[in-house]
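Quick one, tokens below. Sequence please?
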């Protein structure tokens, strides 16, 4: 990871900072696809250098010789963070990419909500949120 960061800094490109508590860090395929995600972020007005992605075990190791089945990926940006649990780096990267390029159009969201009735889970949550 440090070599990737140093190489990109010498090219004048600063991207997402990667951290990992997992031996081996992020997969080579993840590292190869990351510049494409960073370019998409820039095209959508996001600054990749303000993002930090941390990869950790999703659960403590119960059997040491078996690797983790899921990983927690925590994304830090502008003093806020969110965590996503995924089975591998590429699944997380695809999810993260989709979130970065998603349109932030509240009107489209409102239109979709008006045309589609609320689902069972949404109705239960609204019911539970009402004061007693």
């Amino acid at each position: 990871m440090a070599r990737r960061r140093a190489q990109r800094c010498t090219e004048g490109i600063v991207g997402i900072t990667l951290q990992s508590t997992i031996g081996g860090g992020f997969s080579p395929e993840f590292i190869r696809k990351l510049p494409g995600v960073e370019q998409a972020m820039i095209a959508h007005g996001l600054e990749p250098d303000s993002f930090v992605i941390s990869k950790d075990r999703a659960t403590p190791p119960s059997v040491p010789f078996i690797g983790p089945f899921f990983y927690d990926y925590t994304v830090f940006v502008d003093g806020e963070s969110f965590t996503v649990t995924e089975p591998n780096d590429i699944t997380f990267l695809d999810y993260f990419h989709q979130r970065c390029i998603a349109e932030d159009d509240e009107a489209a969201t409102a239109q979709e909500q008006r045309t589609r009735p609320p689902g069972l889970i949404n109705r239960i949550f609204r019911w539970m949120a009402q004061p007693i």
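The chain has five helices and four strands. The chain has a mean pLDDT of 79.
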